Amino acid sequence: MSVVLEGFGLVKRFGPTVALGGVGLALRAGEALAIMGPSGSGKSTLLHCLAGIMKPDAGEVRLLGERIDAMGERERSRLRRTRFGFVFQFGQLLPELPAEENVALPLMLGDVSRGDAVRRAREWFGPLGLGGMEGRRPGELSGGQAQRVAIARALVTRPAVIFADEPTGALDQATGHDTMGLLVDATKRNGASLVVVTHDPQVARWCDRVVEVRDGQILPGSQGAEPSPVPAGRPLSGETTGVLPEVAG
Ligand SMILES: Nc1ncnc2c1ncn2[C@@H]1O[C@H](COP(=O)(O)OP(=O)(O)OP(=O)(O)O)[C@@H](O)[C@H]1O
Ligand SMILES: [Mg+2]
Predict the structure, then answer these.
(1) Does residue 226 lie in a domain region?
(2) pLDDT of res. 63
(3) Most buried among 9, 20, 161, 228, using CB within 10 Å?
(4) Left if phi > 0, otherwise alpha if psi is -120 to 50, otherwise beta: which for 109?
(5) What 3-state DSSP class applies to 112?
(6) Is the CB of 39 under 6 A from ligand 1?
(7) Which residue stretches belong to region Disordered (predicted)?
């Protein structure tokens, strides 16, 4: 299966703390990958480096062969908006906007007209079990419903990769499991890959692969298949990557 995103020799220090001590990781097309490990082991730092939120001190990150760690902030910001989707622990929805406008927001930021963006946003509500909740504000939703709105918002731009950092950490266990199942399912049905940080061992049931992080390293023996030692210089050919399905309706 083709590789979508690769990290090579990623190092990140915060003062004397070595948050990442040379990590390599390859994410395949359509794959759901769970990152597990104790608090402070470097999971979020790894996710932030892979997602172009943070620049590693050393190493490379490649999206479909193109280096993203070397890009400037503006370019990385555009990349995050167009090719990546994000789900955080606390959905981080805008409280004053109805759910459908929260979902439409990434499209509007990408210059889709408000009407078109809201129309496309609404298509996600039924499949995610949110039918009838389009007009509710985040404060009028349960925690699980709010996270499903956040999942819709992450997927609405049809990104290549969804990054989720403890997306169910604020939910009770049953709701968390439902939400995680939906996240993996919706991501796969849309042809995207998923990187999810979680403390929940049950998450392996929904993911194709689990990697264990300890003290800034991937544990040998966990399923973190190392990428090829030399990064391949495959260019990114515009938006036609073969990763994303045709945009429906
Ligand atoms: N901005 C920062 N400034 C200083 N130290 C940081 C910063 N971000 C992370 N660290 C340190 O880097 C290490 C890895 O942090 P990271 O947030 O990646 O851990 P984590 O595995 O996500 O933990 P948790 O499960 O608690 O979220 C920790 O020792 C942390 O204190
Ligand atoms: Mg973290």
Answers:
(1) no
(2) 97
(3) 20
(4) alpha
(5) coil
(6) yes
(7) 218-249
- Give the pLDDT of residue 11: 98
Q: Is the pTM of this model over 0.85?
A: yes
C-alpha of residue 36 to centroid of ligand 1, in Å: 14
Q: How far, CA to CA in Å, does 87 sit from each of 59, 90, 169, 180?
A: 25, 8, 11, 11
Range 95-102 average pLDDT: 97
CB of 37 sitting under 6 A from ligand 1: yes
Question: Residue whose CA is closest, atom 22 of ligand 1?
Answer: 44
The verdict on residue 165 lying in a domain is: yes
* Domain span holding position 193: 3-218
Confidence of residue 108 (pLDDT cuts 50, 70, 90): very high
Tokens matching residue 17: 């703390």
Is residue 235 assigned to a domain? no
Domains: count for the chain:
1
**CATH number for the domain harbouring residue 108:** 3.40.50.300
Percentage of the chain exceeding pLDDT 90: 79
226, two tokens: 């190392």
Q: Which atom of ligand 1 is nearest to the CA of 20?
A: 14
Give the ligand 1 atom nearest the CA of 37.
21
For 35, 69, 84, 133, 240, the CA distances from 164, given in Å and listed in that order, are: 10, 19, 11, 23, 24
Q: Is 103 helix (H, G, I), strand (E, B) or coil?
A: helix
d(C-alpha 39, C-alpha 129), whole Å: 32
Q: Per the domain annotation, does 243 fall within a domain?
A: no
